[in-house]
Write a structure and sequence with these properties.
The protein is mainly alpha-helical. The chain has one domain: Ammonium transporter AmtB like domains (Ammonium transporter fold), CATH 1.10.3430.10. It is 67% helix and 1% strand. Strands 1-2 form a two-stranded antiparallel ribbon. The longest helix is centred in the middle third of the chain and has 29 residues. The protein is globular, with a radius of gyration of 31 Å. The N and C termini lie far apart (127 Å).
């Protein structure tokens, strides 16, 4: 009996040793591990049931297109390169040595002003939804980029983050008034330029961009403008012509030689414009796809064709092809193909380029001389005339084999769009010039113009005697 009790006691002791009591902290940890999956499930369920973010009228929920986003980011950098340093050097090489710094500084000033105007209100007015007035102007919902988040896209490009879409379109808004500066080079006050740029960007550029690209009435009626023939080039060219006439000619214009001080500088700038224009046109496809590819090849072909035909006309008249002439022809081709780049095939692009060379030459040389206005660096002669030509020929050569949106394209619709653009740009520019004249002033004094804007406006010079 005692042996049995002893045996039972030993067995119980063995059992106690084999299964010791679990410490309380360990038990709690084990229970937490068991309960964790349930908590995760609840969190995922709650996230799935959370209400979708509230979107503004122009927005869509972002469905990220990685390749398209990478390409548009690259294109944004390329288009910004067009203004700084591309256009700055292109214009800077064509003015006289005493005005080089002032001319380049104008492009820098435009960059600064327009970037902030676009952030404050320009984007909202151009690409926002204006409700009952949306046919004519965007809304105020996105002032200071309110409502733009990491998860929003513009409904035009739902695969692209809206912040990137805003930046891409901002580079277009920057270069457009920068192009205008070529019309009044060597005679405008810097303060007047900055005020003009701010008002013009907000009151002229943004509405026209909305009409064509932002859901306005011109886009709705079938006006085709792939990358800015009307919005950028006709708009800036017409504004430049109004500015040139309003400010009057430079001292000595028509009576003494006014010679470009450094064609090589202009060549560097033009080359940067050519490369940047690939982002300008091919980037406007909004994706890394076959439309981007055709817009790219069309851009290069049109530039090449126009550079040759400009050269031919120049040789016929002056017996020698100038470097600045060949470069101007190249830019003319780039301008003319801009509205058509994603609507025409390469054959159409070559034809547009071949026509653009002589047309822009005639506008920059013969018509300017005939009408006696001083469009200093041919803002209207190249951008105005080239943009008009390209926009009209888009209606002729657009084909659905390239872009389904070409369905119904016609010369008449393009012409109507251009009439609206020309009238609004001309009247708006004139009103803004009057405002600037009686506030900051516009034109430098005769003494400042004679001595040079570099030293008088900026206290700098290319060299010192």
């Amino acid at each position: 009996m005692a042996l049995g009790v002893l045996t039972l006691s030993l067995s119980s002791g063995a059992m106690a040793i084999a299964a010791p009591a679990v410490p309380e902290p360990v038990a709690e940890a084990a229970a937490a591990v068991v309960e964790a999956p349930a908590e995760i499930v609840e969190a995922v369920t709650a996230e799935a049931e959370a209400p979708a973010p509230v979107l503004l009228a122009h927005q869509a929920a972002l469905e990220l297109d990685g390749a398209g986003t990478a390409w548009l980011g690259t294109s944004t950098a390329l288009v910004l390169l067009m203004t700084l340093p591309g256009l700055a050097l292109f214009y800077g090489g064509m003015v006289r040595r005493k005005n080089v710094i002032a001319t380049i500084t104008q492009s820098v000033g435009v960059f600064g002003v327009v970037s902030l105007v676009w952030f404050v209100a320009g984007y909202s007015l151009a690409f926002g939804n204006g409700g009952d007035l949306n046919s004519y102007i965007g809304g105020f919902d996105s002032l200071f980029l309110n409502g733009v988040t990491m998860d929003t896209a513009h409904s035009l490009l739902p695969g692209i983050p809206e912040f990137l879409f805003i930046a891409f379109q901002m580079t277009f808004a920057i270069i457009t008034p920068a192009l205008i500066t070529g019309a009044f080079a060597e005679r405008i006050k810097y303060s007047g330029l900055l005020l003009f740029t701010a008002l013009w960007s907000l009151l002229v550029y943004s509405p026209i961009a909305h009409w064509v690209w932002g859901g306005g009435f011109l886009g709705s009626m079938g006006v085709l403008d792939f990358a800015g023939g009307a919005v950028v080039h006709v708009n800036s060219g017409v504004a430049g012509l109004v500015c040139a006439i309003f400010l009057g000619s430079r001292k000595g214009y028509g009576s003494e030689p006014i010679v470009a001080h450094n064609p090589v500088l202009t060549m560097i700038g033009a080359s940067l414009l050519l490369v940047g224009w690939i982002g300008f046109n091919a980037g406007s496809a909004g994706a890394a796809n076959n439309l981007m590819a055709v817009a790219l090849i069309n851009t290069v072909l049109a530039a090449a064709a126009a550079s040759l035909t400009w050269k031919i006309v120049e040789v016929m008249e002056k017996k020698k092809p100038s470097l600045i002439g060949v470069l101007s022809g190249m830019v003319a081709g780039l301008v003319a193909i801009t509205p058509a780049a994603g609507f025409v095939d390469p054959k159409g692009a070559v034809i547009i380029g071949l026509i653009a060379g002589p047309v822009c030459y005639a506008s920059s040389v013969w018509i300017k001389k005939l009408l006696k206005y001083d469009d200093s660096l041919d803002a209207f002669g190249i951008h105005g005339a080239g943009g008009l030509l390209g926009a009209l020929l888009t209606g002729v050569f657009a084909t659905t084999t390239i872009n389904s949106l070409s369905e119904g394209a016609n010369f008449g619709a393009q012409a109507i769009g251009l009439v609206w653009t020309i009238l609004f740009s001309a009247i708006g520019t004139l009103v803004i010039l009057v405002i600037c004249k009686y506030t900051t002033g516009l034109r430098v004094t005769d003494a400042q113009e004679s001595e040079g804007l570099d030293t008088h406006l900026h206290g700098e010079a290319m060299d010192h005697a």
